[in-house]
Amino acid sequence: RGSPDPVREPDRFGSWVENACLAHSWNAGQHVSYWREEPLEVDGILEGSWGQWAIEIKTGHFASADLAGLLEFVRRYPAYRPLLICGDGGVTTAARMKISTVTWRQFLLEGPGRGPQ
After folding, report:
1. CB neighbours (10 Å) of residue 97?
2. pLDDT score, position 117
3. 0.70 exceeded by the pTM?
4. What are φ and ψ of residue 50, in 5° steps?
5. pLDDT at position 99
6. Cα gap 53→99, rounded to integer Å
7. Which of 9, 42, 67, 75 could potentially form a cystine with 4 if both were Cys, beta carbons 3.0 to 4.6 Å apart?
8. What pLDDT, on a 0 to 100 scale, did the predictor assign at position 113?
9. How many CB atoms lie within 10 A of CB 20?
């Protein structure tokens, strides 16, 4: 079906970007897993040469409450740094919460970066 249209198929586009980011991490030699403890979850747990990251991937609008799983995971496991991978519009919300961010485009080119942005 080709690449999903972010406007007409936002759910499919979100899944497409999430899979691309996790596959990129795996292909870069990172150990990739996830965490879920209902009702909380984290899209990806990365360990490797990039460091230890808990990542949440958002391609559309989101509220700070949508990052509850990410924040709870890093509270329980402080060795992991939280990272929000998002579209350009999500950077401001994450900055208010003091969460490191990278756009999904940047992530696919550069990885998670070195720390808070």
Report:
1. 13
2. 42
3. yes
4. -80, -10
5. 87
6. 12
7. 9
8. 74
9. 14
